[in-house]
Structures are given as structure tokens and as C-alpha cells.
Design goal:
- This protein is mostly helical.
- The protein has 6 helices and no strands.
- The two termini are 16 Å apart.
Length: 128
């Protein structure tokens, strides 16, 4: 895991899948997603004990976001909770945010994974 955490939001799917194969990292990512979506008051029904692929998580979350928007929901609270900056969003999603939910979903998951990996690295370094 020599990859810098800042690069996680730019990483290709194959690199993300490698992280998700690490012990407990997928579960921790799912728990982080559940926590942040719940705080943003967007129901998310992921099972932290199941194995998901990156594409599987993306597809599921994208459909949840689509339904939330159809019900006149806003994504502001979620984006704040996930801690995505306006700069990150504009860099990765150059056109209308709501018409690019797939890209937004990937960005959300990568940012959440970044949080989990940073905690993982911190625990590893403090155990030495």
C-alpha cells in the first residue's frame, strides 16, 4: 500500500478492487458509507458482512441517489458529510452534477475509502 491516500480519488477501478480485497477494509468501507448516508438522512441498505465489488457498490449507491433526487432530495448534506470539496467535484465532474451520478458515486466511494485507508494506516503505524 505504497499509494498515497490523495491518489485514491483518482485511482482506476482495478486499484480500488485491490484495496477491497484487504482484510476488513471492505467491511470498514461499507460501515463508513452506512454511517455517512444515515447522517445525511439518505437510507442505504448495504450489508457490511457481504462481499461487494467496486462496481456493485457503485451501482447500488447510484440507484439510491437517483431515488433520493426523484423525491426532491438534495445531496448537499451527503457531500458535506463525505467531505468532498467543490474543487474535487469540479475536477472530476466537469458538467452537471445530477446528470453524472455515476461519476459522483465513484467519487463518494473513493473518498470514503480514502478515510478508511487513512485510519488503517494510522492503526498500523501506531502498532509498530
Amino acid at each position: 500500500m505504497s499509494q498515497k491516500t490523495d491518489d485514491l480519488t483518482q485511482m482506476a477501478t482495478e486499484g480500488i478492487e485491490n484495496y477491497l480485497k484487504m482484510p476488513n477494509l471492505l467491511r470498514d468501507l461499507l460501515l463508513q458509507l452506512l454511517k455517512d448516508f444515515q447522517t445525511a438522512q439518505i437510507p442505504l441498505a448495504l450489508n457490511p458482512e457481504e462481499n461487494y465489488s467496486f462496481e456493485g457498490i457503485c451501482g447500488f449507491i447510484e440507484s439510491v441517489l437517483e431515488e433520493h433526487i426523484k423525491k426532491a432530495g438534495t445531496l448537499k448534506n451527503l457531500l458535506i458529510r463525505v467531505d468532498l470539496t467543490e474543487k474535487q467535484i469540479k475536477k472530476n465532474i466537469p458538467s452537471a452534477l445530477y446528470s453524472n451520478l455515476g461519476l459522483l458515486t465513484e467519487l463518494i466511494i473513493k473518498r470514503e475509502l480514502q478515510k478508511v485507508v487513512i485510519r488503517y494506516w494510522y492503526r498500523q503505524s501506531s502498532n509498530k
